[in-house]
Amino acid sequence: MSGGIDAQIEDSAVLASAARMLGGKVKVTTTENFYPVVVGLGVKKGNAALAAAIRSALADMEASGFYPALLARYGVSRPTEAEFNAAIGE
């Protein structure tokens, strides 16, 4: 808006929010994810109870439609299998 930049690469959820808040002064011009970031939850090795509880909660969020709705709300997508494998070094 100050004329200092012509393009910017940023987190897709942050940019989508900025575009909405700035009322059309900026716009997101691509739907392609650049440099997707795959994040996960770490659990101490051997803590099977916590790992199971997390897996169960995530499965419940998926089954209820909450997780897909959350992704849609923020304009992000789940990683592809290839992105996941690349993130874990496979």
Order of helices and strands: HHHH
**Cα end-to-end separation:** 42 Å
Major sheet? none
Strand segment count: 0
- The number of distinct structural domains comes to 2
- Overall, the morphology is elongated
Secondary-structure-derived class: mainly alpha
- Taking pLDDT < 50 over at least 5 consecutive residues as the criterion, the unreliable ranges are none
Helix content: 40-55%
- Quaternary status of these chains? single chain
How big is the Rg?
17 Å
Strand content: under 5%
How would you state the average pLDDT, rounded? 84
Individual helix count: 4
Offer a quick outline of the entry.
This protein is mainly alpha-helical and 90 residues long.
Descriptive notes:
The protein has 90 residues and is mainly α. The chain folds into two domains: 1-35, no CATH class; 38-90, no CATH class. 47% of the residues lie in helices and 0% in strands. It has helices at residues 12-21, 48-64, 66-73, 81-87. It is elongated, with a radius of gyration of 17 Å. It starts with 11 loop residues before the first helix and ends with a helix.
